[in-house]
Specification:
Layout lengths: L2 H26 L6 H8 L3 H13 L3 E3 L5 E3 L1 H7 L2 H19 L5 E7 L2 E8 L14 E3 L4 H9 L2 H8 L4 H17 L2 E4 L6 E9 L5 E9 H18 L8
Antiparallel strand pairs: 1-2, 3-4, 3-8, 4-5, 6-7, 7-8
Length: 245
């Protein structure tokens, strides 16, 4: 390949990556982000962010309301609407098994979208005192078991891009946790997101190159009692054929 062709190819890939990152952010917080927000999250100059967003709107991949807040465009909505239900259907038997093995604890299925984990399915705990999150909500990455597991499933460049928005102290802590999760295969939230609730999670790339996570949250006292059982259930779930379909 000629040097000029290689340069054009690299520039084209960079534009596609930026567009994908922008759409992930918009999908995570539809109707909430303005141009300045997206520019900051993507680390782009205002002029570069404007050109990118104008292009996405022109081809129907994004839309902007009267106050300048972005949502996914109609062209994308038709493709993306089936992602959650499709992944939920693939993984339903797996999360049901995790629920049985953990003796009725809540099991959540979520997908990485931008800098949030999007909950697409759940087996609700049978216990009176339980941890429950509504399907459709989005949780942050840095303080949740499923979020940290998803970070560990990304490559180093993707992780650096996401955690660059955090303070150096938080970013360093996350890098250390990501390294540990890659070694053990299990991520933990020990009361970081919600006081009194702990969780463990796994995550891998699955259908459509989506990063999918399975997590088990529970009241901390009961989580500590069952921690080994929960971890074993998640390790078994990591071998489910659902990841490869």
């Amino acid at each position: 390949m000629e040097p000029e062709q290689q340069t054009n190819r690299d520039e084209g890939i960079q534009v596609l990556r930026r567009a994908a990152a922008a759409l992930d952010e918009i999908a995570a917080e539809p109707g909430q982000l303005r141009l300045v927000d997206l520019g900051e999250r993507l680390g782009l100059a205002k002029s570069t962010a404007r050109r990118l967003l104008v292009g996405l709107v022109e081809v129907g991949l994004a839309s902007s309301d009267s106050s300048g807040r972005f949502s996914l465009g109609e062209r994308l909505l038709g493709f993306g609407s089936a992602a959650g239900p499709h992944i939920s259907a693939l993984f339903r038997p797996t999360i049901e098994r995790v629920s049985r093995v953990t003796e009725g604890e809540t099991v959540d299925l979520s997908i990485l979208r931008g800098q949030r984990m999007w909950f697409v399915d759940q087996i609700e705990s049978s216990y009176r005192l339980r941890a429950v999150s509504a399907v459709g909500v989005r949780f942050p990455l840095e303080v949740t078991a499923n979020g940290k597991a998803a970070l560990a499933a990304l490559d180093d460049a993707e992780v650096d891009s996401i955690i660059a928005r955090f303070s150096p102290e938080v970013a360093d802590g996350l890098r250390a946790e990501v390294a540990e999760i890659r070694h053990t295969g299990i991520a933990f939230d020990r009361g970081e997101h919600t006081a009194g609730i702990s969780a463990a999670a796994i995550a891998r790339r699955a259908v459509g190159d989506n990063v999918v996570a399975i997590s088990v949250p529970a009241p901390t006292d009961r989580f500590l009692e069952k921690e080994q059982r929960i971890v074993e259930a998640l390790r078994t779930a990591a071998d489910s054929p659902a990841w490869n379909r």
